[in-house]
Amino acid sequence: MTAVNGALDCDLALSPLTNTMPVLRHGLLEGGEPVDFLMAWVSVPDLHVHPSGQRYMYVHRSGASSIVRYESSSRDFVADLTFDQDGFCINYPGIGRSV
User: Per-domain residue ranges for the chain?
Assistant: First the structure.
């Protein structure tokens, strides 16, 4: 699929798990500059693949958790995601949280 050539990651709609890949690969649990990505975004339930411009930016650390801001350039959406020390997204506002 030409529209997503160069995308290193997929992003499954409504799943906080796929946000882990770019965050860990770029060390965003500890800091760093904002990073822009092209993702292969998979819509649910039809499973169509779409190009999705995304930015991840370290915000701060709170105890054993890190806050990373997710911004979509493909749609008007911004969320502060909470990751545990292993890089799993434990709180994605509006989508899911660890219990």
Answer: 2-97
